[in-house]
Here is the input.
Amino acid sequence: MAPAAAPAPPRRPRPRPRPRSRALLPLLLPLLLPPPPVAAFNLEDSRPVAFHGAPGSLFGFALDFYLPEPRSVSILVGAPKANTSQPDVTEGGAVYRCPWPPGDGCTAIAFDHIGTRTHDFGGNSTETPDPVEFKSLQWFGATVRAHNASILACAPLYSWSPPKEEGGAREPVGTCFLSIGNFSKFVEYAPCRSDLNSAAGQGYCQGGFSAEFTQAGRVLLGGPGSYFWQGQVMSATQEQIAASSYPEYFIQEVAGQLQTRQAAPSHDDSYMGYSVAVGEFSGDETQGEKEEEEEGGRRRRRRKEEEGGRRKEEGGGRRKEAAGGRQRAGDGETKRDGGSEAPDKEKRGGGRSPGAKAPTILILILIVLILLIFSLSLILSLSLLIFSLSLIFILILILLIFILSLSLIFIVLILIFILIFILIVLILSPSPSRPHTPGQIPRAGEGPEPPPGAATPQLPPRDFVVPFPPPSTNFL
Here is the structure.
């Protein structure tokens, strides 16, 4: 028989808001903008390892690493629509343990082997007991977390049916199972299966929609459907969960559990607990839950405000009683002294010792001294700063002057070098041609050029006498 679908959850009645066209603009802008690029990568693309589950079981919906020992590693895989051996349960979901390095395949962890439980709320054993919980389509394995030798697996769509006098409707409260001590003990943790039924309470909590372990091993659970979908976060230690586990009871109260409370109706549809994470938020090197710390802070502030209010009320009452007694005593003294108010003032003023003002005067003197010291130190610091800046400015000015003087010397040297170079060129350049004078032997290239067409005169040959050295008479 196919499991019956859960009824539509109710909603808190709200006044209908006025339509606003401006509210559509922020919703349409993401549709008009181009989608951002998405990239992915495989950690080991050369030799990937694939684990396979039953078709349609959503095998791999949740993953985590299981390290009960430093050198013992396994992979936890959630399959929220897998069929198991639980009686009368369809697609209840399962969690598999896959060894690493890969071996014989993945093995289902037996968190829960019980089927749908029933109970005779009317006390008449002749009638068929009514089903109390519904594990079909509960999505067990949608959330899987591990911490050392402990594993937490949750079914956020687990439903149960409270007694008819309490509503009797089917409510998806959600549930989780905790494995402690490397599969040595299994306990159920269902904090939303409580007396707070219907959507106004924890009836649609869906506990286990998100979950996490703290560094110390504390369990953190999120239920986004509590209190008209305001959402809720619960937390408890593994020891507290194990000590409060009684399988024969449906409603189990975990002693010491921390949880957020219902807020104002303006916080409806906030879905707190849709996703949870743990970390170090307060700077005290202690890792904890942010939601729990905020709730604890709110409780502490509320407690302080209540204690302050009580103290103010008690102090106000005492002051009123003391004022009334002083007034009565003053009236009697006035009557006895014939209406004179001076004795009454002296009595009221005499109750305060003259030395009561001394601490106030000392505090004022100390404050003035501190302000003077601070002012002097500030003036001294400013003076030192101005002196330092002035010194730096002078040094920079001297450096600029020195650089400028070097530049002028360099320019003068360049000019001198240019002048010397010009003088050398003028000295070494050849003199201009001079006219031929009589008696001077003309040189080649000198003299008047013959007219065009005239024959070049031929000089008579000359005998060239090569002088030789006189012969030497000394021959060996």
Remarks:
- The domain at 53-279 is CATH 2.130.10.130 (Methylamine Dehydrogenase; Chain H).
- DSSP finds six helices and 18 strands in the chain.
- Residues 19-31, 38-42, 325-356 have pLDDT under 50 and may be disordered.
